[in-house]
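User: Fold this; tokens only.

Assistant: Input:
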Amino acid sequence: LLSFGLQLVSYLVVFKIILKIVLSRLNKLSKLTSNSIDDILIDSLEQIHNTQLVALAFLIPLVNTVGHVQVLLAAKAALILVVASVLRKILLVIVTGVSSAYIKENPGTKTIINALKMLVSIVIYLLATIFILDIFGVNINTLIAGLGIGGIAAALAIQNILADIFSAVTLYIDRPFNVGDYISFGKTKGTIQKIGLKSTTLSTLAGTEVII
């Protein structure tokens, strides 16, 4: 028990020192650069809570010292979930920071950004689930093959929706027009009021709204 406690404290101290050193270096770097990448990285690392560090410091020595098989498997699964939650939080902060400028210039991009955040969360926890199932002896090769086939079937079933999403992404990246621009489309002329995933709303000079 004493050895376990010493390991826990040692891991926690090491994690705190490494995090402090990395943040200190990034803060110094941010003062020398004009881009926002280092600021976003700082924000993402500052989102790591002390409770998560304590959980990591507790679970790592537990995985290395525990003897009971079921407790060991549970500890490994918990460790994977904690690591997944930390990665998810960091990635979500990065996505938010990178996309903030686009959202300010075009509020319509908020929809696609929220969808991207949800996708990040799903992918992180899906990978964590696969790793946990592998730990408990589930044949993940069969599962992955099934997910692949299921993914193809789902893609075929929602191909029209995916086409709309990819078209929206293309508009957000290329940005041929933004909310507030006055454009002409065929015989229709108007000011863009909203850019969504499936449609763009124009306000004509006559005061009517046209959805394309």
